[in-house]
Amino acid sequence: MRHNFLAETRDVVKERKIEIERQLSFIKKAIETKSTLLTFTEEGSNVNSSSLISFDRGLIKTLSASTYLLLYNLIECSMTNAIDSIHEHIRKEKTSFHDLTQKMQRIALKNFRNALTKESHILSQESIEHAIVWLGYDGEKIFSGNIDAKKVRDMAEKYGFVISEEAIQGSRGGRSLLMIKRKRNELAHGKISFEECGQEISIDELYDMYDQAIIFVDGILDAIEHYLNERLYLKY
Fold first, then answer.
1. Could you read off the pLDDT of 115-128 as tens digits, one per residue?
2. Which residues contact 211 (CB under 8 A, 6 or more apart)?
3. Bridge partners of 38?
4. Burial, 157: exposed, middle or buried (Cβ in 10 Å; 0-12, 13-18, 19+)?
5. CA distance 75 to 88
6. Residue 10: how many CB atoms within 10 A of its CB?
């Protein structure tokens, strides 16, 4: 029976989408209403003056900037889990090294070299012929805070999956991913303040960036699902 290793990834993406949409919706409403008040109530209870607190409009700029972090989190999480699914799929199928395409063989050999320093781990494997395919793979080191459209396209070429032209055009070539990566890194390394960063972008631009990122991510997941379903990691 085939395993759908991407199902969990799609569920995670769905959850991250909700997080981002919730934040964008709040920012949009705050901007449109020019509100400077928040209320904290329990579900079903009435709003009263004692539950109201004021906030500075600078908070909206800070929240706008933090959207870059949420977007980057969505992208790197999606891509890391998607690549993980390829390796997990091959491992579960107990695919032989010699049955893989040359592209996947190169990836397997590179990962296996990383595992050679752990001799006891290698000796514990039932079959080196199968273990060489997946041993040494470390998904956490694939992107490490450096993912953009070019990195994804390089990864697609490396593994041999193809991103649809529809996804590329719909996301404008993944153009927004570069901006998301840059701003995320600038914020993470303290090169720019959140308020300053948030002042540079409008809510409409944030929504547009989000839409492009989602189209690109969904396109990648579809490409990898096709790659796994058609077993394009195998040589014929």
1. 666 554 554 555 55
2. none
3. 53
4. exposed
5. 20
6. 17
